Amino acid sequence: MHSPNPPHPPHPSPPVTAATAVDPPDPARDPGLRQAVEAVAGLPARWTPAAEHTARGLWRLPRAADAVAHALTAGGPAGRDRGWVMVRTRVTEEIASGRDWTREAAGWLSLAEAGWAESAWLTGDLAWRARAEERSALIFLTARHVAGTDPGTPFGRALWHCFLTTLRYDFRCADIEDFFAGTLAGAPDDDGAGLDPYSAAMRAFALLGRSRVAGLPLLAAVLARAAHDEKVVHALLHGLWLGEDLPEQPGRMLELLSAPAFAHGLGAEALLRKASALRRLRRFDEALTAVRSAIDGLGPCEVVVHGDCVRERALILVERDLYGS
């Protein structure tokens, strides 16, 4: 998620886009397509820098776009996972090129008829990468344009996710509040119940990040719908971490860290939030253990989270000296 873009190959000619990958033929009757489908099937199921490097090479195949469409629509769960590795790689090339990567991502999500969780996962990681490479989604998307799209469709929902997630990474809570105030004004479900859980989590993040207690019932409502989704819970944690003097704030953070989304353990970012919550509770030894575990679990390219961990460790040590262990 946090790794820089390594060198990328030139774009195919003509450029491959989601629009060119509609209705791929049957690979059983098309040797060229079959070769590309088999090559995509050989990718790892999860994105890694090494998987991205391999996927870049696969995009050189003449039938790559058709093979990715096949993986996403007819390849079953395993094929779909590998298809998303290919899509993520393709969109990172758009990011590096300076072209509008948000619509490229939305096009593939639409073609795959992706649900909100797939959209949140893909656009969240890509929005972070684009922001780090000075290709922020906000270069290509405005609040007015995004509000005019339908978040009930995969394409519109993807643009919402790109836009809102980037605002979250920029800590632009007021802009997120204004966006929802405009889009939900007068709607019968202006409490956000009609939003997908990830979009609702963005609204909760904005309220919590501005220390508004109105964000707490929204947090509870979102958690009741999607406590299993890591992207959702991270957004809620982020809001609690950013806010100030909310009721039982550090305790609520620790409760979120026990959500089903983290059943398989806490990653570095979650451990960083845990350290922050424990520091606020003046449980300094536990906080130091958490932040050390976070640092130990970081990948070599996660420099932003590493910097946050170093700052958190310094705060823990200063407050421990001030208040005692």
How is the secondary structure organized here?
Elements lengths: L30 H11 L7 H10 L5 H11 L1 H22 L3 H11 L4 H17 L10 H5 L6 H16 L3 H12 L12 H13 L5 H12 L3 H13 L6 H8 L11 H13 L3 H13 L6 H21 L2
Helix pairs in contact: 1-3, 2-4, 3-4, 4-5, 4-6, 5-6, 5-8, 6-8, 8-10, 9-10, 10-11, 10-12, 12-13, 12-14, 13-14, 14-15, 14-16, 15-16
What is the mean predicted local confidence, pLDDT?
90
Stretches where pLDDT is under 50 for at least 5 consecutive residues are: 1-22
User: Using DSSP, what is the number of strands?
Assistant: 0
Q: Which bin fits the share of residues in helices?
A: 55-70%
Q: In whole angstroms, how far apart are the ends?
A: 35 Å
- What is the H-and-E element order? HHHHHHHHHHHHHHHH
Computed structural class:
mainly alpha
How would the global form be characterised? globular
Largest sheet: none
Q: Tell me the number of helical segments per DSSP (H or I, 4 or more residues long).
A: 16
**Cα-based radius of gyration, to the nearest Å:** 21 Å
Strand content: under 5%
Summarize this entry quickly.
By secondary structure, the protein is an all-alpha fold. It has helices spanning 31-41, 49-58, 64-74, 76-97, 101-111, 116-132, 143-147, 154-169, 173-184, 197-209, 215-226, 230-242, 249-256, 268-280, 284-296, 303-323.
Please give a structural write-up:
It is built from 16 helices and no strands. The longest helix has 22 residues, at 76-97. The chain has helices at residues 31-41, 49-58, 64-74, 76-97, 101-111, 116-132, 143-147, 154-169, 173-184, 197-209, 215-226, 230-242, 249-256, 268-280, 284-296, 303-323. The chain is mainly alpha-helical. Helix 10 (197-209) packs parallel to helix 12 (230-242) and helix 15 (284-296) runs antiparallel to helix 16. Helix content is 64%, strand content 0%. Mean pLDDT is 90; it is low at 1-22. The chain starts with 30 loop residues before the first helix and ends with a helix.
